[in-house]
Amino acid sequence: MRSLILVALIGLSAGAALSQTPPLLVPRGAGPLLDADCGDYGDGVSESFLDAGQPASVSLKHDGSSLWVCVDAPLGSGVSRSIALHLDPQGDGGAAPQSADAALSVALESGVRSSRHGDEAGTGWSPRPGLDPHWSVAVQVGRARETAEFRVSITGLQAGNCGLPLRLAVEHADAFGPGPSGTWPAGATPAVPAGWRAAEADGAPCGCGGVFDALADAELRASQPGTNYGAADTLLVAQADDESRTLLRFDVTPSIPPGATVQAARLELPLRAALGTAPYTVEVRRVDGAWNEATVSWSSQPAAGAVYATRTSDLAAGILGIEVTPLAAAWANGGLVEPSLQLATPTVGTTLELDSREALGPDGPPRLRVLCAMPATEVPPDPGARDAAQQADFVRLSASSAEPVDS
Asked: Of 105, 214, 321, 368, which has the fewest Cβ atoms less than 10 A away?
């Protein structure tokens, strides 16, 4: 006899070498019923994996507002077995979970759910307290198979919105004994996001915002204080034998209307190579003055203000993502006039080599991805509806009055 458990999951708010497998393109399809029926994914995409030597599969699609993931696995025998979905919304991998990474798990026998996130130190998982309606799950346990279907809010957990790359992994744990019996992708380790499956939600809406390439960039080198590097195809951020910083300028205003709320913004840096000390830290500072890509140098660089964001990573090459939501919000609402930032590192012995916008590299130029919500629009009153309501009131008044009413 099959049992159906529908669980509203709550409890989550949403360098090792990265896997070089091309990203999985998750198509847009019809939102299925949340009933743990993986047969509803004919308009999605599926991949198979082995679970204790037996066939298993994971199916994915999105409907514009939710990412749907359905896991079909062989029936286990462990009383504490579970299925977990691991998410890296930033898509930048790493040797350990970061604070934005999430692990969503449900016990197959009891329906008990749990949520974890990467700890602030970037060394492992921590329980996620509190309530959050941004994801849910349905579980079916049958005679030969067991399935779990996850629904994840694209905007609530920043999982694939606006075409942002992300990484996912699935774990069928304690099914036939302690530890994972099967993982997708094959060989993935739930605690190492670098080995998770890269994916992109095809055609996921932005609402407002979008993807913005750097309009200008320039390296600043302390050992060459009067030299301009605005036309170079590399950008250095270093604190080694020489100190180097990088300036980037963006323009987000055309796609973010006045009054819009910036919900998330991520800086994506095309990292060609990271040399020296690892892990390293990158600081993102606001820039307090104008500058010209063709003339700026170390000696003429504009003043840099407060640190708006930091990122500690051991990524050796690829896309280095840094969350810069407060900075993008300040640009969008006019709190900062100059839409530029400065990159620097306080990590002694580190040199980061980035592709500039002139490089035309495979990872593209430095980019900023912004997700925002349109401002609330007040609907003007309908004069016709108002007049009709007034006339109805007049008729009711006339019918209830003992004296004639002059219209």
From this structure: 105
